[in-house]
Design a protein that fits this description.
alpha/beta, two-stranded antiparallel ribbon, about 55% helix
Length: about 425
């Protein structure tokens, strides 16, 4: 019991097995420092709540990392989720993931659509199919969590369409998707609180200016990632102005708002890939020193708190859009370039031109491949027809030869049947005369 122990400790002093008080103080101080550091690095917890039942949420990157934590929490609150994934909905992994998410959250309104953010054609195909619906489909929220990075020291990579991968996935695909979905966002009824949530990263502060092109000589993984995040923020502010400039048919104010979120650094697959430099040796070092990243990096669930705050905080659904949330509170931008209208205009025009040029080349390539495929299929069909004709002619020749052979054999049997057999053609009569 604690009371007798404390009384004995007071009257008789510490027992021999108890460490010296100084060691207890040091151990307690160290443990307290670790706990406080962990609590501080884990960040704030979202305290906002909002009725999400019936609301349609479109989310990218919702199958791993921070995006998966956001998707799970929104589904638990009753939102109808549309997961945009690189895999087809029939992919076994994706089928299991969706089934597990439905079972964990008790929400069957979770679906998957195939959208490869490394392909402008895939983005356009999905987005145009979405907006072609009449009447316009409901869309309450777009959360763009998907992002990629290249490990330090790795070579520059390009997509199949010839665009640098980091720029394509982190910025250009989001620019393209929101540009096509813009009519669907504008068409939502006034009583809906529509939000476009753009997760970003504090690395945008160290980004080179957008006017400075990253050629192959100046390109590094860190610069490419930071520049893509800065471009996304500049575009997001410009997209908010684009929405605000729209005149609704009912003459009511625009009800769609862009919200930027800095979730902080978390122990996600992308962060592990960055820290380990994508190598096995780096992974072994990461595991050996796991206590350090565990202490200073957030878990995916804690990193998702700021995004959930942006999705559910009532105050963010009122007033001006284009605000930045970090640690579940609104903060200021650290780069003036975010509000540079000239830079935003140049970025918008350059992105449109790049998309047009890239899609034109991709369309020409697809048309050429389709023509080659059709010509190949036609040649293959002609070859099969020729082979079929040759086979039929060969079968006819074989049938005729077999018939001729049968006739010859039949005639040979007839001749053999008429011909007398040797030794049985003579008969002997009395008188010595032979009769044949």
């Amino acid at each position: 019991m604690p009371l007798p122990f404390l009384a004995n400790l007071y009257f008789n002093g510490a027992p021999s097995w108890m460490p010296e008080p100084w060691w207890l103080i040091k151990a307690g101080s160290a443990l307290g420092a670790l706990i406080l550091t962990k609590r501080y690095c884990s960040g704030r917890t979202n305290a906002a709540e909002r009725n999400m039942h019936g609301r349609v949420v479109m989310i990218t990157g919702g199958t791993s990392g921070i995006g998966a934590a956001v998707a799970r929490e929104l589904a638990r609150r009753g939102a109808q989720l549309v997961l945009l994934t690189r895999q087809a909905p029939s992919d076994p992994f994706l089928v299991d993931f969706v089934d597990d998410l439905r079972a964990q959250t008790g929400n069957d309104m979770v679906y998957a659509e195939q959208v490869d953010l490394a392909s402008l054609h895939s983005v356009r195909r999905f987005a145009t199919r979405w907006i072609d619906n009449a009447p316009p489909r409901r869309l309450d929220m777009v959360v763009l969590c998907a992002a990629t990075l290249t490990p330090p020291g790795a070579a520059r990579e390009e997509t199949a369409e010839g665009v640098e991968t980091t720029w394509m996935v982190n910025f250009l695909a989001n620019f393209h998707l929101l540009g096509i979905l813009s009519p669907a966002i504008k068409a939502q009824p006034f009583d809906r609180d529509v939000r476009v949530i753009l997760p970003t990263c504090s690395s945008y502060i160290a980004s080179p200016p957008l006017r400075d092109a990253l050629d192959r000589g100046a390109w590094t993984p860190g610069r490419a990632y930071a520049r893509s995040k800065l471009a996304l923020m500049v575009f997001g502010r410009a997209f908010q102005k684009h929405l605000d400039a729209y005149k609704r048919p009912d003459s009511l104010p625009m009800n769609a708002r862009v919200v930027f979120v800095d979730p902080g650094y978390a122990r996600t697959a992308g962060m592990v890939r960055w820290l380990t430099r994508g190598s096995l040796l780096g992974l072994l070092a990461y595991l050996a020193l796991y206590l350090v990243p565990w202490l200073v990096l957030k878990s995916a669930d804690m990193a998702a708190q700021s995004i959930l705050h942006a999705a559910m905080e009532e105050a963010l659904g009122r007033g001006a859009g284009g605000r930045l949330v970090k640690e579940c509170i609104e903060v200021d931008f650290a780069r003036r370039e975010v509000d540079d209208e000239a830079a935003a205009k140049e970025l918008w025009e350059a992105s449109d031109a790049l998309i047009e040029r890239t899609e034109k080349k991709a369309a020409e390539r697809r048309a050429r491949e389709k023509k080659e495929r059709e010509e190949g299929e036609k040649a293959e069909a002609e070859r099969k027809v020729k082979e079929e004709k040759a086979r039929e002619e060969s079968e006819k020749v074989q049938e005729i030869e077999a018939l001729v052979d049968t006739i010859k054999k039949g005639r040979a049997r007839e001749v053999a049947a008429k011909k007398p057999k040797a030794g049985k053609g003579k008969k002997v009569k009395f008188g010595g005369e032979a009769e044949i």
